[in-house]
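All the exercises in this workshop are built on plain-text protein records. A record pairs a protein's sequence with a compact description of its fold. Read left to right, the backbone structure tokens trace the chain's path through space. Once this layout is familiar, the rest of the handout is easier to follow. Here is such a record, shown just as it appears in the course material:
>
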Amino acid sequence: MLRNLMFGAAAIALAALSTPASAQLAAGDVEIEGPMSHVEVFAAPKTDSTVLGPRTYIGYINLMGVTVKVLQTALIHTPTNTTTATLKDFALTSPKLPGRTTGGFIGGTAIIVGESINGQVYASDVFSDLFEHVVVGEATAPVIVNDQVSRATINGMIIRPSTDKRMPAGAPINGLGLKIDADAIDTGTLVAAEGYFSPSQNTLYYHTLEADSARLLRPEATQIGVLRADCRVRGGGRDEIQVRGGVANPADGLVIISIPSPTPNNPNRFVQVGTVQAVPDP
């Protein structure tokens, strides 16, 4: 990431040398990543008159000494809540997440994308995963309470799913993207978890968990797991789509790949673009 930022800075510097001293940055190319020290949400939206037209905003975020006004139309999201997250969820007055002593996401990292107008930043996209804490290691003996698995562990560190609706844990998956039973991860196998660490509870609250070896959550059901989907629009009949994942029951199932192609009378219409015959794991 530092490498990209360094090259980006060099490109900006070169551009500055080749343009008049009075030239200004074009709006829409601002990105800031850093810890949030304060989040304020207004009772009613406010509007600024700018050289690029009115900007209506619902509050602001302070991060790394920069005050960012959050546009009313801004997308506000976390890794596992892309639809209902709000700016208020990040504020100090919002309830504490499990294992946290501070309200909301204060102190956590925000990634802001937006525009700068006469020095004022307006955010069109606000993202936070609180802290990008990641552990990749060996599944160790789980914590057992009353003869039941209470908490899984990675190299002895306790991991728990985040149950907070602002950043809930997604379904644990295996290397093929299929849902697994997190309480049945085989000791000694590879596990990766991402979330935020609570020092007071010595626990990682994860929103994403992947393990190499565990029984499927629904072992008899037909399942399709998608790890990644990429599309390249090249034109001239050379467009490409690539989907990676796995299937179960049957392991050699035929997978149909479709893309949205809505019409006014059928907004849920999909068009088939390809088929793939799965190859069973040996």
User: Anything to note?
Assistant: The chain has a mean pLDDT of 79. The longest strand covers residues 30-50. Residues 133-211 form one domain. The two ends are 38 Å apart (CA to CA).
